[in-house]
């Protein structure tokens, strides 16, 4: 295990963590401000990936594909918010979970009807297909560098939006004390609609960017939802800063576990046992991290209502 391999895996973990942040940021705002548990958030991620893959294939323009994915997903989310989510704001969490789980089933069947059951292989943009020489003996895929840069730029933009603008002030007020915000005359319905659309756009952006390096398939939204929920629990519900820090931690722990644990176990266990045990232990690493954080800080690292 050399230094170049370790550095490559750290960069992979950083990129994965930033994509998790794009998903978890919208989810934590929806839960923190609207007090609505939206399990269908992963379906918006899946929608972004499918739309981007198809538009890129048809137009050969990756930028157009990403833009189309965000716009189409936000439009679908706006319709979903009006027809379903708005009716769940005052209901208990069990009803919200059941209703949004039903949306997951409908979304999966809709994808089957529109695009079929076979996974899609989204192509990497031609301009970003090759590696970039970061240092001597360290080539790194240029597309993965794009993921890191895009994640950091969106994180910076979201920070400025939430902390430096009036709409951000209303969002933070709703996350900290929704009832007080209502008493102060905040149009809660408008803020809710904006937050839901913003979360959908971020999820779609993550799906569009992740499509070229992962298989675009039915159920991919449910698979990414679990790490996203772990991120918001670790970071603190309703906290953008917490989601950012927790996403980086989860991304690095998950990637490092999958890359390094099997190699470390081979030093003390037979190769066949290490090959089976390593991925299993790596799969629970983020849950161990969550348990450790919640033992010390039950409300998460940076709870919005602190």
How are the elements arranged and paired?
Elements: H1 3-34, H2 41-59, H3 62-83, H4 93-115, E1 131-135, E2 138-141, H5 142-164, H6 166-176, H7 178-183, H8 188-210, H9 220-235, H10 240-265, H11 271-283, H12 285-296
Antiparallel strand pairs: 1-2
Helix pairs in contact: 1-5, 1-6, 1-8, 1-9, 1-10, 2-3, 2-4, 2-8, 2-9, 3-8, 5-6, 9-10, 9-12, 10-11
Count of helical stretches: 12
Q: How do the strands of the widest beta sheet line up side by side?
A: 1-2
* Fraction of residues in helix: over 70%
SSE string, helix = H, strand = E? HHHHEEHHHHHHHH
- Give start-end ranges of low-pLDDT stretches: none
What does this protein structure show overall?
- The protein has one domain (3-218).
- The chain contains twelve helices and two strands.
- The protein has helices at 3-34, 41-59, 62-83, 93-115, 142-164, 166-176, 178-183, 188-210, 220-235, 240-265, 271-283, 285-296; strands at residues 131-135, 138-141.
- A two-stranded antiparallel ribbon has the order 1-2.
- Helix 3 runs antiparallel to helix 8 (188-210) and helix 10 (240-265) runs antiparallel to helix 11.
Quickly list its features:
two-stranded antiparallel sheet, 306 residues, mainly alpha, globular
Please outline what is shown here:
With 306 residues, the protein is mainly alpha-helical.
